[in-house]
């Protein structure tokens, strides 16, 4: 558990020697490092929110499937939280457990802008490792905030920041996220296959080997004991594709998405169509599903007037829950007996309705069961509900999907937003209703586990 009091941790002489060593190191580095002209820092707004907005910009440029993006968010926000925890341990009161470690770093007194510097320099260095091709963008965002170059010397790099960055980087090294094993489809009716068709061309999903991150369910979790810890029963209960396709439940699922998710649907309402596009954010150039939920987190946090320390913990909890939700979801998609084909395949190849088109026009390149959007939304909602000790908080959410007819939607609870996010995948024509339901159940279980096992507040 954390400590709210700082012991002497050694005699005065030992502390003096340690500080002397740090200052000597700093002096040497300062002498070797050219110093640039500095502008006044612009510490406008919360630093945790600032760097999460920088992350969203990096995600828009990087693109790709949601698993690696959720991992990046967890890596940055957990490191920020540990850095902020170290700052609180040193100069204020640490009221919740760190994620990995908080250090009582060297220093006699709090320096100018120290909280900003601890958070910002940690975030920048993590992002630079995660997105090495975006150095110019990240450097510009650093200078925009601090008025200096990120390469300019700062004593906090020596005393605390480098430790936070190294801790996090080492923790995620060899976590399985680099596994590039190519997927081989089961090649049976009901089994996932590429979703590119002559009238619905998709070069990114024209071959089975293009399935996105088939081994992601084996990635080392951030809080869970394994990716399969909360695996829902539904995929395994049929045991085979033949049993699944012969079941009345499957026929009902296909019928529902065939009607509600068709591009020319006569049963989907105008509001459902708007919601389908509002929650999509599948295309590269958007902030993707994890980014949208981080953006909503920022909006709610601003409305509630959270401090940087409160924000650091909230964003870390949300990000870790979404990262584990992605791992758990990909376990369901690829590590269970049923790698379920998408509705476009079920309807065109299973039912022979070759003219059917989903509202989306294209389909994510991985199995349907269960819905990643649903798991992300439920993991997010579960953390928000437990963090704020209430589900019934009204907020306005935004989207950056270019096809969305509306920019904002208002919700009266976190659960309401998560439920609509899940249902939107059926309305978009890319998921079955049970994908949404199982994803919600899975994401909620992940959130509760994360909240009760990591970064716990005092007295919890």
TrEMBL record:
Keyword Cell wall biogenesis/degradation: no
The entry's keywords: Signal
Signal peptide region: 1-39
Domain Phosphatidic acid phosphatase type 2/haloperoxidase, residue spans: 338-452
Pfam families, sorted: PAP2
PANTHER family assigned: PEROXIDASE-RELATED, PHOSPHATIDIC ACID PHOSPHATASE TYPE 2_HALOPEROXIDASE DOMAIN-CONTAINING PROTEIN
Name of the protein: Phosphatidic acid phosphatase type 2/haloperoxidase domain-containing protein
Organism listed in the record: Streptomyces crystallinus
């Amino acid at each position: 558990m954390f400590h709210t009091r700082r012991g002497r941790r050694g005699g005065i002489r030992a502390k003096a020697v340690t500080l002397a060593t740090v200052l000597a190191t700093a002096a040497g580095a300062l002498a070797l490092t050219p110093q640039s002209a500095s502008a006044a820092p612009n510490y406008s707004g919360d630093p945790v929110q600032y760097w999460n907005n920088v992350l969203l910009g990096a995600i828009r440029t990087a693109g790709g499937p949601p698993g690696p993006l959720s991992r990046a968010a967890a890596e940055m926000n957990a490191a920020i939280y540990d850095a902020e925890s170290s700052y609180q341990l040193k100069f204020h009161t640490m009221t919740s457990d760190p994620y990995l470690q908080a250090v009582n770093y060297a220093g006699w007194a709090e320096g100018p802008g120290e909280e900003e510097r601890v958070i910002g320099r940690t975030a920048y260095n993590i992002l630079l490792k995660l997105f090495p091709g975006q150095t110019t963008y990240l450097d510009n965002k650093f200078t925009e905030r601090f008025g200096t170059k990120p390469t300019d010397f700062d004593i906090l790099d020596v005393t605390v920041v480098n430790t936070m960055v190294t801790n996090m980087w080492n923790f995620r090294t060899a976590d399985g996220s680099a596994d590039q094993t190519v997927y081989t489809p089961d090649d049976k009716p009901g089994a996932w296959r590429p979703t590119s068709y002559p009238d619905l061309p998709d070069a990114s999903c024209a071959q089975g080997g293009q399935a996105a991150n088939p081994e992601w369910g084996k990635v080392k979790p951030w809080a869970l004991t394994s990716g399969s810890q909360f695996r829902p029963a539904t995929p395994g209960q049929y045991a085979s594709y033949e049993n699944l396709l012969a079941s009345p439940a499957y026929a009902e699922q296909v019928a529902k998405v065939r009607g509600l998710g068709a591009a020319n649907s006569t049963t989907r309402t105008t509001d459902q169509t708007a919601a389908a596009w509002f929650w999509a954010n599948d295309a590269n150039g958007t902030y993707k599903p994890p980014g949208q939920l981080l953006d909503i987190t920022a909006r709610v946090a601003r409305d509630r007037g959270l401090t940087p320390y409160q924000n650091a913990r909230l964003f870390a909890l949300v990000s870790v829950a979404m990262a584990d939700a992605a791992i758990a979801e990909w376990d369901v998609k690829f590590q269970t007996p049923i790698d379920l084909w998408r509705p476009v395949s079920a309807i065109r190849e299973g039912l022979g309705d070759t003219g059917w088109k989903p509202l989306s026009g294209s389909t994510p390149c991985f199995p349907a069961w269960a819905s990643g959007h649903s798991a992300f939304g439920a993991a997010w909602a579960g953390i928000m509900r437990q963090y704020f000790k209430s589900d019934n908080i009204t907020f306005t959410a935004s989207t950056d999907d270019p096809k969305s007819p509306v920019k904002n939607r208002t919700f009266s609870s976190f659960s309401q937003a998560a439920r609509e996010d899940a249902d939107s995948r059926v309305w978009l024509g890319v998921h079955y209703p049970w994908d949404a339901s199982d994803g919600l159940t899975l994401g909620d279980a992940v959130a509760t586990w994360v909240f009760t096992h990591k970064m716990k507040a005092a007295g919890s």
